[in-house]
């Protein structure tokens, strides 16, 4: 795999990003994820620190199942486009529904692992509240929450990697979930560096645009946000979330297009 092949794959994946039906699908999926995020963020305003942490990570992990289903559909559409095949959207949805729903179950293990980490984190919050000796143990055992939160962040990154490597494999190959996971793991073990480079390239546009959008959202929140009831804040975040998702949609389409190209590049090695 040469740099020219990667460049051709990048340009090929970007060429068909601005398709109305693909952008609409991505916008709807991102908006549903955004609604979940806004809802959890609104709940976290009055919640304790322990519950607030769960409401920070849970919507990200829960959204991966929906995004994985979206990825399977986008990869299948892209695969037909690159082959010059014309297929009605209704027929494509009907043929891809079972695969998309079945593949979304692969996002459950990270969610279950996070719930275990969250429960373990709750033990440290309980220890901190013990009278007299709680603050002492809070200082001595501070490394525990640090490691648990670090593992939670790794799980979120793992979920993004899951979207990149599982979606094209599930869309292009018919296999049971266990066999599919084993096949992907074998491919990653054989080509770890190439897989990481391709994953980073696919994620780069989303990181760049997402960072700019996040900075704009934070500045908007600091400058114009209301300090009144959480319901009003949630509505404000909701109306900011809609253009956020619209502007992020092309990068999500590219992410799955490039994942399909990367899958083919790795298979040819």
Give the arrangement of secondary structure elements:
Elements: H1 3-15, H2 20-44, H3 49-82, H4 89-104, H5 108-128, H6 134-140, H7 143-172, H8 177-190, H9 192-224, H10 230-268
Question: Gist?
Answer:
86% of the residues lie in helices and 0% in strands. The chain has 269 residues and is mainly α.
Report the C-alpha radius of gyration, rounded: 21 Å
**Terminal-residue CA separation:** 7 Å
Number of strands: 0
* Count of DSSP-assigned helices: 10
Task: Briefly note the structural class of the backbone.
Answer: mainly alpha
Morphology: globular
Amount of beta strand: under 5%
Query: Helical content, roughly?
Result: over 70%
**Major sheet, described briefly?**
none
Q: Overview of this structure, please?
A:
The structure is a single chain. The protein is mainly α. It contains ten helices and no strands. Helix 5 (108-128) packs across helix 6, helix 5 runs antiparallel to helix 7 and helix 9 packs antiparallel against helix 10 (230-268). The chain starts with a helix and ends with a helix. The protein is globular.
Top keywords for this entry?
single chain, 269 residues, globular
């Amino acid at each position: 795999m040469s740099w020219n092949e990667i460049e051709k794959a990048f340009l090929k994946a970007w060429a068909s990003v601005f398709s109305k039906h693909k952008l609409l699908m991505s916008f709807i999926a991102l908006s549903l994820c955004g609604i979940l995020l806004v809802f959890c963020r609104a709940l976290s305003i009055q919640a304790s620190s322990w519950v607030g942490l769960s409401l920070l990570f849970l919507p990200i992990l829960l959204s991966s199942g929906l995004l994985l289903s979206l990825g399977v559909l986008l990869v299948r559409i892209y695969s037909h486009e690159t082959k010059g095949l014309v297929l009605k959207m209704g027929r494509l949805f009907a043929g891809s529904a079972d695969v998309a729903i079945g593949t979304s179950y692969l996002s459950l293990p990270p969610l279950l692992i996070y719930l275990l980490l969250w429960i373990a984190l709750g033990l440290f919050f309980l220890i901190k509240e013990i009278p007299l000796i709680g603050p002492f143990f809070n200082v001595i055992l501070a490394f525990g929450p640090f490691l648990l939160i670090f593992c939670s962040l790794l799980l979120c990154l793992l979920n993004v990697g899951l979207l990149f490597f599982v979606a094209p494999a599930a869309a292009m190959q018919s296999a049971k979930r266990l066999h599919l996971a084993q096949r992907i793991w074998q491919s990653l073990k054989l080509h770890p560096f190439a897989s990481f480079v391709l994953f980073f390239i696919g994620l780069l546009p989303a990181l760049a645009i997402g960072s700019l959008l996040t900075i704009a959202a934070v500045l908007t929140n600091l400058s114009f946000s209301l300090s009144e009831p959480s319901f009003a804040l949630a509505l404000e975040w909701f109306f900011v979330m809609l253009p956020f998702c619209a502007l992020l949609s092309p990068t999500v389409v590219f992410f799955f297009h490039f994942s399909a190209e990367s899958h083919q590049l790795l298979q040819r090695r």
